[in-house]
Amino acid sequence: MSKILSIETSIAICSVAIHEGGRLVGLLELHQEAVHGSKLVPCIKSLMEHSGYAMGDLDAIAVAEGPGSYTGLRIGVSTAKGLAYAHDLALIGVNSLDALARQVMSEMDPGDFVIPMIDARRMEVYAKVLDHEGNSLVATRPEILDENAFREYLEQGAVYFVGNANEKARKCLESPRAVFRDYLNGARWVGEIAGEKFVRGELADIAYFEPNYLKEFMVLKSKKNPLLS
User: Fold this and answer.
1) Is the pLDDT of residue 217 over 70?
2) What is the 3-state secondary structure (H, E, C) of 13-33?
3) Which of 7, 15, 158, 190 lies 20 to 30 Å from 68 when distance is taken between CA atoms?
4) Which residues, in sequence order, are CB contacts of 85 under 8 Å at separation 6+?
C-alpha cells in the first residue's frame, strides 16, 4: 500500500497529512498567517514522529500545486521537491481547487455542480467548475465575481461553492440553488487525490515541477510576448 506525505500551503493554513493505502493516518494543521516558512518543516517532522513513520517508509510526497498564495505555494512546492529529491521519492502535484472540491462530492447529486474558489484580490477569485463526479468542466482560471458569475450553472442545478471566497461570493451570487460550504484547503484532501494519482502513475518530474501561480504566470507570459495577451 502506498504511503504518501501530503503538503497543503495554498492559503494561510499550513497543513500536512500522511495517508497509507488511501487511508488517513495522520494530520497536523496550523491556522495561522504567514507561518509556512518557519513552521512547515517542523510540522512535517512532528507529524512523522507522532505517526511512527520515517522518510524511508514513504513512497511519495504530494503537494498542492496551486493556485493560491504565491509565498505559500513557493514554500510548499520547494519543500516537497527537496524532500522527494533527497529521499528518492515520487512527487505528485495536486490542483488546490480539486482538493477543495473533493470535500463536498459526497453531498452532491447527479446534475449538481461544484465550484471551488480561492480568494484573490478585490472581487477576483481563482476557480474552476466540476460536475458531481469530479470531472472538470471549466479549467482553473481567475474569475471576477458579479451578479452574472456562474449564472449558466445556477440555472441548471444546485451549485456548491466551497473555499475561502464564500463571504464575498454570497454578496453577489443570490440564488436558491447556490449552496455555500465554507471549507478550507487541507492536506487530507490533497492526499486522497494523490493516492489515486499514484496508482495511475501520474507523477511529476521533480526537475521541472513548478507551482501553478496562475495569475502571476499569465502576467509574465503576456509581458514577454504581447501577441499572447
Assistant:
1) no
2) EEEEEEEECCEEEEEEEEECC
3) 158
4) 206
Partners of 3 in the β-ladder: 20
CA–CA separation, 158 and 114 (whole Å): 8
The C-alpha cell at 144 is 471576477
Give CA angle at 44 (42, 50), nearest 5°: 100
DSSP reduced 3-state for 212: coil
Cα diameter, the chain: 54
Query: C-alpha grid cell for residue 120?
Result: 484573490
Rounded to 10 degrees, the C-alpha dihedral 67/70/71/73 comes to 30
Residues 47-76, buried b or exposed e (16+ Cβ, 10 A)?
Answer: bbeebebebeebebbbbbbbbbbeebbbbb
Q: How much is the pTM?
A: 0.91
pLDDT in tens, 138-189: 999 999 999 999 999 999 999 999 999 999 999 999 899 999 999 999 999 9
Joined together, the cell numbers standing for residue 228 give 499572447
Q: What is the grid cell recorded at 176?
A: 436558491
Q: At what angle do helices 70-86 and 36-51 cross, to 10 degrees?
A: 40
Pairwise CA distance, residues 110 & 138, whole Å: 17
Instruction: Transcribe 107-146 into DSSP letters.
Output: G--TT-EEEEEEE-STTEEEEEEEETT--EEEEEEEEE-S
Could you list the beta-strand ranges (E) of the chain. Answer: 3-8, 13-20, 23-31, 60-66, 90-95, 113-119, 124-131, 136-144, 159-163, 178-181
The cell numbers describing 219, all together, are: 502576467
